[in-house]
């Protein structure tokens, strides 16, 4: 079987995780202790975004922002905001692949760290664990690309 990929191209592409860290975390329980007396039928609203900062040539900080608000009726049980960050070495990729790496691949690496931090913090706050389902960052990126193309065409 013949290898059709140019070995020189593969040698030029480099990806590495330099560091993964918590950039910011906030946990609020504005209606405690009364909220613990309520019948627990929570409703959750979650917002997700990411931010990219170029630190140096081929070195990027990617920050995954997750905000979850859990309400019981009209009362906010808790609000948690996590900014999970990572520093990534991304070298030798074409622009479209670099965009994919920064907006899909890196957030996918950061999400399990953020999910564990959210679950742990919520539990320590006296609530049942908030178990976040996996997120398909590749599909989100494809959707954003498609919407961007639609906006460009109009």
UniProtKB/TrEMBL annotation:
> SUPFAM superfamilies in the record, alphabetically?
SecB-like
What does the UniProt entry say about where the protein is found? Cytoplasm
The record ties this protein, via Pfam families, to: SecB (PF02556)
Listed GO CC annotations: cytoplasm
Its domain of life? Bacteria
One GO molecular function term? Answer: unfolded protein binding
Grouped into one coarse class, the protein's main location is cytoplasm
Q: Which PANTHER family match?
A: PROTEIN-EXPORT PROTEIN SECB, PTHR36918
Q: What is this protein called?
A: Protein-export protein SecB
């Amino acid at each position: 079987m013949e290898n059709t990929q140019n070995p020189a191209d593969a040698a030029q592409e480099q990806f590495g995780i330099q560091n993964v860290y918590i950039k910011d975390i906030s946990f609020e329980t504005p209606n405690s202790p009364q909220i613990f007396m309520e019948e627990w039928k929570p409703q959750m609203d979650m917002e997700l975004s990411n931010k990219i900062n170029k630190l140096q040539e081929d070195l990027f900080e990617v920050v995954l922002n997750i905000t979850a608000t859990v309400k019981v009726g009209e009362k906010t049980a808790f609000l948690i905001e996590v900014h999970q960050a990572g520093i990534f070495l991304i070298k030798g990729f074409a622009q479209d692949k670099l965009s994919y790496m920064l907006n899909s691949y890196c957030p996918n690496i950061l999400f399990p760290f953020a999910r564990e931090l959210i679950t742990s913090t919520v539990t320590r706050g006296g609530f049942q664990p908030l178990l976040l389902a996996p997120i398909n960052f590749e599909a989100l990126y494809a959707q954003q690309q498609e919407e961007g193309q639609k906006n460009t065409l109009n």
